[in-house]
Amino acid sequence: MSTVQQSVPRSAEEPTVPPQGVHRAVEDGPVLLTARAAIVVTMGGLIGAAVAWLTYLADHGLAAAALAGLGAGGASILGLNKVIGS
Fold it and tell me: What is the share, in percent, of the chain residues with pLDDT greater than 70?
């Protein structure tokens, strides 16, 4: 007769170690940006790019489009920082 081994669940405190040769995608340690900050900056960049594109289509001036996009992007980062809760 064969014996059946019962699996014992691992405790939450016991760390899991990946097998040899497997690398973790994210290392434990300090992060450069929080998720909230990354969302605010990304949305600000997208808003600035949209304003710059629309300004360029209306005026065909690259300098004016760049200044409008940078201004809108910076202002939207300030606004989104207030709107999106911490």
Answer: 66
